[in-house]
Design a protein that fits this description.
The protein is built from 11 helices and 13 strands. By secondary structure, it is an alpha/beta fold. The strands form 3 sheets. It has a 6-stranded mixed sheet with strand order 5-6-7-3-8-9, with helices on both faces. It has a 4-stranded antiparallel sheet with strand order 11-12-10-13, covered by helices on one side. Helix 3 packs across helix 4, helix 4 crosses helix 5 and helix 8 crosses helix 11. It is elongated.
Length: 311
């Protein structure tokens, strides 16, 4: 388990992480999301002691990372895939880490096979592609068979097969009862793999929630239904957990808490004709963009002007 309490990091006048409170629990995949410059990498670096907090605390399994006797067996982290000596082979890189923690060679062989590095294990890491570097970084993170796994952008450079492999790896680690904390800019992947989300913007906590609840908050479970009998339809649909909105005098209602199918069945049972019934589909990406719109540090523009041409 990872627990942050009022975690803060300042660089001069800039506050990179601002009083973060969150808990990453075992048995689930927790996605760590935020725009560029939101403080994700700084937070991850503080978790493993690479940066010292200005104030606040962060612990792993009840202790600061530096206080663990065998840190590789507590936390396996991938923060920078290419931070490997370029002249060292993948096998030698893993063996060097294994020696420092009393990890047997057979475990090195296991993680090489697990990450698909068998054919390049004796080749120099400096010649690796970004995708192969990612696999080696993940192999190093898993070397100590850790209770907590923390990966920063693990799918960068991976082909579709590799992305699927990462997805299955993360869910498998969580199913084993491990704490899995992963950052990514690929919302489609987070929607498929994450159980829980911690979202930050400009160093501050914006949401600590599930994918489903975030999408629901963004209107993802809203069904639009229209009828000539809106008042009667409202009565028919009302019930615990159901929220119905609509302007006075309008034939259109917006319903949350019921599926389009359930609404259609109830209307038919009471003989209420409908002339519109549509469910709004909101993706995790849309919900994320809505939530972080004011926390984006750099905004692009979609307008392109051609030099030398009049407007």
């Amino acid at each position: 388990m990872i627990e942050a309490q009022q975690l803060t990091k300042r660089y001069g006048e800039k506050t990179a992480v601002d009083r973060l409170d969150f808990v990453v629990k075992p048995g689930t995949v927790t996605g760590f999301l935020g725009p560029n410059g939101a403080g994700k990498s700084t937070t991850m670096r503080m978790i493993v002691g690479l940066d010292a907090p200005t104030s606040g605390t962060v612990t792993v399994n009840g202790r600061p990372y530096a206080e663990h006797v065998a840190p590789l067996q507590e936390v396996g982290a991938l923060l920078e895939a290419k931070s490997i000596h370029p002249g060292r082979s993948a096998f030698d890189h893993l063996m060097a880490q294994a020696y420092t923690h009393g990890i047997p060679r057979r475990r090195v062989d296991e993680v090489i096979e697990l990450t698909g590095l068998q054919s390049v294990a004796k080749k120099r890491a400096g010649a690796f592609s970004l995708g192969m570097g990612q696999r080696l970084g993940i192999a190093a993170a898993l070397l100590g068979d850790p209770a907590t796994v923390m990966l920063d952008e693990p799918v960068n450079g991976l082909d579709p097969e590799g992305v699927l492999w990462i997805r299955n790896l993360l869910t498998g680690l969580a199913a084993d009862g491990r704490t899995v904390f992963v950052s990514s800019h690929l919302m489609s992947e987070m929607a498929l793999v994450a159980d829980h989300l911690i979202i930050v913007g400009r160093g501050r906590l914006l949401a600590d929630t599930t994918v489903r609840d975030l999408v629901r908050t963004a209107g993802g479970d809203t069904v639009t239904v229209a009828s000539e009998q809106p008042a009667r339809l409202r009565e028919v649909l009302a019930g615990p957990g159901v929220e119905i909105t609509g302007e006075v005098g309008s034939e259109e209602l917006h319903v949350t808490g019921l599926t389009a199918r359930a609404i259609g069945i109830r209307a038919a049972e009471h003989g209420i004709p409908l002339f519109e019934l549509s469910a709004r589909t909101v993706s995790l990406e849309q919900a994320f963009m809505d939530l972080t719109r004011d926390a984006v540090e750099y905004h692009g523009t979609t307008t392109v002007e051609t030099p030398g041409r009049a407007a």
